[in-house]
């Protein structure tokens, strides 16, 4: 028996190397079952293209023409498309229409998840909330839809990889700029407009199913607000602010959707939580960028398990100890890998290439910009987050000055944040707008000048190492404002910073926990953590 695996194509910003991990794990799993593996991929920097990984390697772009040529020559018993990300997933329907056997989740289910209208119908049938959305095929239609939904909006082209050309717009003028500069709207290439849930928490879920049983790998709470691409957001396993009730609801909805799509193999779901209400954002019936992180966080190689499920193995046979725990009631919910008394937090942090792009504004948004990720693990969320920052090269300060400057919509949310840093002994600095807002609310904050107001200003202080951490949220405008110069100076000086309020609170909690620990960190090896699993 031989199986063809489709890789993720060339590695680039917006196309995570994590998909290569999933492909390699799938190859290892199939080899364990005595199956011959054939790999199609075209990136010399990946493990999947090493000469001794798969039995055969075709170093070709992952496009339909090349895939069909390899199939014609090799005549494989099936094709695995769910491990290489979005690139091979788009080939599912063309391959199915040509009679090629697709292993794992059926292409029809993949199409339901990928097609906006079909997916909305399924969510309505399952009684699962979604954000209001529209599809526009002309500029006039886009403006009309935007007025119907209301601002802010998340806008994007209909076919995107890594969130490319996605943007949050807060007013009609920004939408017009986007339509004129970023995308070309047509009947062939419509744009999608979604109501953006301000101040919501985004949640990722990775799960695995065999068509009958469904196990949740992990529920990951994003540390940055919804609107930051999931590949760019730090994340915590288990959730660190969500209530148990909300977490359970997310798990129940995950199982409902996975079952409705007859999932065989991996599935990734993205939710948003606002005011205690859970909304589904999107579903990807494939491996996700978080699969390596989740696998290391729970002690189970999800991609390997998924590959075996795709060839007909059952989860009850692959991980019998999990189902034994479920019988004994030791899991959070009826489909969890981890036992209920799990006491560790793992935090994923991402690494960005800002220093290699000196003109790029280092701000997070819907378009993916990261090039790697690291992980911290501890029994307290704050310490796990602190370790993740160390691993990413951001050593959080334990004393000194914190500079806070945020958009008007974020000002009410930083009052407690500023007070928290002051309570830890930090001096808080702010430019005029944030300074005035905090001062009026009794926060002992010090005023500093913007770049446009004269010197010495905040950028001078950053360059002179007089600022030790920066919290700065974007206004939504694209012009190179004072905030742009602040963020660039921060990156150039290697100063820890965040462009979201939730990131600021995570930073505060990390520093607080580190100080409470007496500035001591304990190292937890994965072997120590998962010895009993």
CATH superfamily of the largest domain: Methylglyoxal synthase-like domain
Mean pLDDT across the residues is 88
Instruction: Supply the helix-strand structural class.
Output: alpha/beta
Summed up, the helix count is: 20
Biggest sheet character: 7 strands, antiparallel
Task: Write structural notes for this entry.
It is a single chain. This protein is α/β, with parallel strands linked by helices. Helix content is 36%, strand content 21%. The chain contains 20 helices and 20 strands. The chain has helices at 18-32, 64-74, 86-89, 92-97, 107-114, 116-126, 139-149, 172-181, 244-260, 291-298, 302-310, 315-318, 320-328, 381-391, 415-423, 432-440, 458-463, 482-493, 501-516, 526-529, and strands spanning 2-6, 36-41, 56-59, 78-80, 133-136, 153-157, 167-169, 191-195, 201-210, 214-225, 235-237, 264-274, 277-284, 345-351, 372-378, 401-405, 427-430, 446-447, 469-472, 497-498. The strands form four sheets. It has a seven-stranded antiparallel sheet, with helices on both faces.
């Amino acid at each position: 028996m031989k199986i063809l695996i489709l890789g993720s194509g060339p590695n680039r910003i917006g196309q995570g190397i994590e998909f290569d991990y999933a492909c390699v794990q799938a190859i290892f799993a199939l080899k364990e079952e005595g199956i011959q593996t054939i790999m199609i991929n075209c990136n010399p920097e990946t493990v999947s293209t090493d000469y001794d990984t798969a039995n055969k390697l075709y170093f070709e772009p992952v496009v339909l023409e090349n895939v069909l040529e390899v199939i014609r020559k090799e005549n494989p018993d099936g094709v695995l498309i769910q491990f290489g990300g979005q690139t091979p997933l788009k080939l599912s329907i063309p391959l199915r229409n040509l009679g090629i056997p697709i292993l794992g989740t059926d292409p029809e289910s993949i199409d339901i998840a990928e097609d906006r209208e079909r997916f909305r119908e399924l969510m309505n049938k399952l009684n699962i909330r979604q954000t209001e959305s529209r599809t526009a095929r002309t500029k006039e239609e886009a403006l009309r839809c935007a007025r119907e939904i209301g601002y802010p909006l998340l806008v994007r082209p209909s076919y995107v990889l890594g969130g490319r050309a996605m943007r949050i717009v807060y007013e009609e003028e920004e939408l017009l700029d986007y339509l004129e500069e970023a995308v070309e709207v047509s009947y062939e290439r419509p744009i999608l407009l979604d109501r953006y849930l301000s101040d919501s928490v985004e949640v990722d879920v990775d799960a695995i199913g065999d068509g009958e049983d469904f196990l949740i790998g992990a529920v990951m709470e994003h540390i940055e607000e919804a609107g930051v691409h999931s590949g760019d957001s730090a994340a915590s396993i288990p959730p660190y602010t969500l209530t148990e009730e909300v977490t359970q609801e997310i798990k129940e909805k995950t199982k409902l959707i996975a079952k409705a799509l007859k999932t065989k193999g991996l599935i990734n779901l993205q939710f948003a939580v606002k005011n205690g209400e859970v909304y589904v954002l999107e579903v990807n019936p494939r491996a996700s960028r978080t699969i390596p992180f989740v696998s290391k966080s729970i002690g189970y190689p999800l991609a390997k398990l998924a590959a075996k499920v795709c060839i007909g193995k059952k989860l009850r046979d692959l991980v019998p100890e999990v189902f034994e725990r479920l019988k004994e009631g030791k899991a959070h919910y009826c489909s969890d890998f981890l036992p209920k008394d799990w006491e560790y937090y793992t935090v994923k942090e991402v690494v960005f290439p800002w220093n290699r792009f000196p003109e790029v504004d280092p701000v997070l948004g819907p378009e993916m910009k990261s090039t790697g990720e690291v992980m911290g693990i501890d029994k307290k969320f704050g310490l796990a987050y602190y370790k993740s920052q160390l691993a990413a090269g951001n050593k959080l300060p334990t004393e000194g000055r914190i500079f806070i400057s945020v958009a008007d919509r974020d000002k009410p949310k930083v009052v407690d944040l500023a007070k928290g840093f002051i309570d830890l002994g930090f001096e808080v600095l702010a430019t005029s707008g944030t300074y005035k807002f905090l001062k009026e609310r009794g926060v002992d904050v010090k005023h500093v000048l913007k770049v446009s107001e004269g010197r010495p200003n905040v950028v001078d202080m950053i360059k002179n190492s007089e600022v030790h951490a920066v919290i700065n949220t974007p206004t939504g405008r694209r012009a190179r404002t004072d905030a742009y110069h602040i963020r660039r100076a921060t990156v150039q000086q290697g100063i820890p910073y965040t462009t979201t309020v939730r990131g600021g609170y995570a930073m505060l909690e990390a520093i607080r926990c580190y100080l409470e620990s007496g500035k001591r960190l304990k190292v937890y090896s994965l072997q120590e953590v998962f010895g009993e699993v």
